[in-house]
Write a structure and sequence with these properties.
The protein is α/β, with parallel strands linked by helices. Helix content is 49%, strand content 9%.
Length: 238
């Protein structure tokens, strides 16, 4: 984690040539590593993210939350609004725009499910894209408000157990199911970081993810440095 903090601290900062870059000071990652997780406030958005879980996933995630409650400044329930249709329309349309030439000139290069998703983006109308993109921009402007009372949000990574690749439903319904808890945070501009809390036997089951304020990585490093240290010492926190 120290190496990652040193590298990110060096490359973080405003890039005027990048339209998504934000002009704000880079986070103090080295200080976060020394601080540890004791002062972190953790939010649990149960609505939308905790429904429909496999019983083993539910048990492991609740165990992870109990671990966090003991090691941080506390855990509280929060609300994170979700609008899957908004993000999906933008994602499909922008995905198609990147691959439009290849889709038209050499569609055989794509596997059928991927080609189907790309062509779904072609079907998104201009007015729909503009409307949904405006909604997405508004959501991202509001994203810092999700962290008014907390520093990190914890949710299950996926609601279900893993299945064999041959049984994967490789269409939008199957993808949406396993990406259900990840896509909303991508929409908010605060992509999550996975962590584990539990025994080695249940390492997959205990997979949760933490999401933080957009552009702020200090809480991640405060937690991950501690959890990595505990892992090397053989504890059940990962």
């Amino acid at each position: 984690m120290l190496d990652a903090a040193v590298l990110l601290q060096a490359i973080a900062g405003y890039n005027a040539q990048e339209t998504t870059s934000v002009d704000r000071p880079a986070p103090a990652l080295m200080a976060a590593i020394k601080r540890g997780p004791a002062s972190l406030r953790v939010g649990v958005p149960r609505e939308s993210f905790f429904t429909g879980r496999h019983s083993d996933v539910q048990t492991a995630v609740e165990q992870a939350i109990r671990v966090l409650s003991k090691l941080t400044a506390g855990v509280q329930e929060v609300v994170v609004p979700v609008n899957p249709e908004m993000h999906l329309a933008v994602m499909l349309a922008e995905g198609f725009s990147v691959h439009a030439a290849r889709v038209r000139e050499a569609p055989q290069l794509f596997q059928p499910p991927v080609l189907g998703r790309l062509r779904g983006g072609e079907a998104v109308g201009t007015a729909t894209y503009i409307h949904r993109r405006r909604e997405l921009d508004q959501v991202r402007r509001a994203a810092p408000g999700l962290f008014a009372r907390v520093d990190l949000l914890v949710t299950p990574t996926v609601p279900l157990m893993p299945i064999p690749i041959a049984e994967v439903q490789d269409d939008e319904a199957g993808t949406a199911l396993y990406a259900r808890n990840t896509r909303p945070f991508n929409a908010y501009g605060c992509p999550p970081c996975p962590f584990h809390a539990g025994s080695r036997r249940t390492v997959y089951l205990s997979a949760c993810k933490l999401s933080g304020r957009p552009g702020e990585r200090s809480p991640f490093f405060a937690w991950l440095t501690y959890s990595n240290r505990r892992t090397t010492q053989g504890s059940g926190v990962r």
